[in-house]
Structures
1.
Amino acid sequence: MSNKSKLAIRGGEAVRKQYLPYGKQWIDDDDIQAVVNVLRSDYITTGPAITKFEEKVANYVGSKYAVAFSSGTAALHAACYAAGVCEDDEVITTPLTFPATANCILYLGGKPVFADVDYNTMNINPSSIRKLITDKTKAVITVHFTGQPVDIDEIDHIAKNHNLIVIEDATHALGASYRSKKIGTFSDMTMFSFHPVKHITTGEGGMITTNCRELKEKLVLFRTHGITRDRIKLIDDHGPWYYEMQFLGYNYRMTDFQASLGISQLKKLDHFISERKKIVSLYNRAFKDLNCLKIPSINIDRQSSWHLYVIRLDVEKLKVGRREIFDALKAENIGVNVHYIPVYYHPYYQKIGYNRGACPLAEQIYEEIITLPLFPSMSQDDAFDVINAVKKVISFYCEQ
Ligand SMILES: *Cc1c(COP(=O)(O)O)cnc(C)c1O
């Protein structure tokens, strides 16, 4: 595909000269200094910065505990372990997510069961969860898609009735709230990621927040080989050098210089979110009356932290499919993306026996979605470039 041919829709120049990515980290001098300070100190891993970062995140979301990991994926793996997911256990989750949300179930020999989503919010639908519960169901992993919280109360109610553990993949939802309370304490465990496209970054990194001490202790051991040095917990004791590996854990530790970056980033989180919201209002205002396109659907009892801005195409009315619109926006130098390919479409999932057709709404949504650029350091001019490009492309292809 050549960019030239796609530009031919108006025969003219691209709206933007320079490519605008869909997401990007914000690193300033304070962040750099925070990392340098740790690099010059005694501990560059498993030192004081980890504990401090954990405390700060727990404080921010209002949880009792927080446990840092080397990635969000490692954190999900640990959460599934702590939840007791074992061979042949079923765990219900959404197909509209990054594969890591479901992979963590497979790591432990469990079986991901995909529940369909709500057509408007694109979040997992509580009634689809209810229909899939069996004797083998152990847990539910929800995803606050794009940053808008799921129907927490309904899901909590189902989980209590069936004795299920709930893990929230809140990768998109750091700083989001549900009925005026921050995401991070609603369920047994909540996972956050600090990958550079997420709200705050540590390069790679993740965190689990929980109010349960027993879960917290399992998570801490899982992060470091299943090894404990706690004299009270030892089964045996050979002397002062003695430590004990009590189950099969991993090395999923975050470094101290990453944690220090995280502490510095966390100070700016509320500012990052408000910058994201400014862009979102510009987008919403510009697109709400545009034909052939729908803006994100918002529930008024919850506050999104706006990790992603996903538009929906009216593929019935458009003369072309999502592919043409996507290519045309790319040709305008707009870094569009698609979140997400339904997890069970991936060849690996097909190979292990999943079939298309399982979640018709998620599959239909997949044909309609395009993610537009959204990150805190985007300027108003950047946002207007995106708006102009979308208007140009949509008005060209829309039947009206
Ligand atoms: C990014 C992401 C993950 C994985 O987090 P990593 O820190 O990259 O391992 C998991 N789930 C969702 C929904 C994500 O967006």
Note: The first strand starts at residue 65 and ends at 69.
2.
Amino acid sequence: MQFVLLSALASLIQGGAAASGADWRSRSIYQVFTDRFARTDGSTTYPCDVKNNIYCGGTWKGIQNKLDYIKNLGFTAVWISPVTAQVTEAYHGYYQTDLYSVNNNFGSANDLKSLAAALHAKGMYLMVDVVPNHMGWAGCHDTVNFQKFAHFNKPEHYHSYCELADMSNQTEVEKCWIGNCNMTMPDLKTEDPHVASEMNRWIKTLVANYSIDGLRIDSVKNVNADFFPPWCQSAGVFCMGEVSEGRPGYTYPYQQYMDSVLDYPLYYAIKRVFQRESPMSDLVVNLAACTQDTDAGCRDASLLGTFFENHDNARFPAATQDLSLVKNALAFTIMSDGIPILYQGQEQHFSGGDDPGCREALWSSGYSTTTPLYAHTALLNQLRNHISATHPAYLTYQTRVLTYTADVIQLRKDAIRSIFTNQGAQGGSYTLSTQGMEFSKGETVVDVLTCSEYVAGEKGDVDVRMERGEPRVLVGKGGLGGSGICGVD
Ligand SMILES: *[C@@H]1O[C@H](CO)[C@@H](O)[C@H](O)[C@H]1NC(C)=O
Ligand SMILES: *[C@@H]1O[C@H](CO)[C@@H](O)[C@H](O)[C@H]1NC(C)=O
Ligand SMILES: *[C@@H]1O[C@H](CO)[C@@H](O)[C@H](O)[C@H]1NC(C)=O
């Protein structure tokens, strides 16, 4: 007992209380693509042609200097690109050569420590992207000289080469190598006890050295799943894995091996629905896919990472420019059961296509804080931050579908009721009667997106003004007390 108390005290004194799932649940995450967020010189004109696939000069110092841009969007955590040393021109960070050195294109080890300290001083968390599956080699698989790697420098640390040809064969997915003759990714033999224990040692010191609060784990489906529980335990912080697969039955069971996975099944559904490729019923099916008590394998929907853009996929506006549809997808994401994640540039309505098109330099926007989507994001984060602080049940309340048609859905998540539509800007203006919202009779209800007020009728429903396909986010006025939202103090 005394020992436990002493070590708790010691960790408090060091200022490092490791962040768990419970600590992350209330957070919202801004995804920074380190090479493309901000340069140390703060330039807004430095050229960056995504097609060149070379460094554009973003740094950790650059991020640190622009933290208020992120904080004022209401985010409480920042996910950055992998930090390890890389082959030449691996500006994204996924072709590492030395796990124990940092990528000096992004700055020094002290710069990274300084970024972590600056985030913590603002009450924000640092999430670092990590890659346990592979190293990087600029050449064909048969030219790899393992001795060139700083660690894991012997052939027996890797699976023997095979080409990953059949993505439906899980053995191949885990044991074969990704890449081609321009860039090969020697595949670490993570089921080997020596490799696993070295990996455990590495992640523990990485987290400690840089005061990391959470991990985004790359290429999870390419690694044997039972590698992760001891690894995440060594890390001692929240783990969110990338399982880039839309089938719930494939993706969600990975949550049995780590705190969280990126919600790729919901990502595809959000895109289909708000790009008008499928009706609202598609969302309904997907909202039910991760429940705590089914065979789906999900442990906790409130810890999944909810997103609809990232650095690997064409941006939403690449296909659908309509701002009202973007606003619906964005509001749905921030108000969902999981931990919301926005990728840099969403707030600027960037529209880049498939990788590398979606990796535009954010500085080309001039870091404008007056765009419609900047304001929309900031308001929704402010609301989520306020409600999760004042309504203890909100974060773990599982969203209920109240009613839906092909193009309008009404949802309730505890204190918040929302209406989403994929009618788009041509959707016109009309009055919508809600169903099952269960506000109190006579209660004043505020749509936080317009500050319009309604009075709940006999059954606790309201008649809401819908306009040009915009979403609606409704809260009892009393629930906004102290938030400053819509002037409610
Ligand atoms: C899957 O791949 C492994 C390794 O290449 C192979 O031995 C096995 O036969 C494959 N299984 C199927 C069902 O194709
Ligand atoms: C390798 O790189 C060259 C030059 O950039 C490119 O033309 C070629 O398509 C690449 N090959 C593969 C397999 O990606
Ligand atoms: C962390 O710091 C220690 C002490 O300087 C060093 O030995 C270790 O290699 C570092 N680990 C990483 C992953 O940077």
Note: Residues 1-15 have pLDDT under 50 and may be disordered.
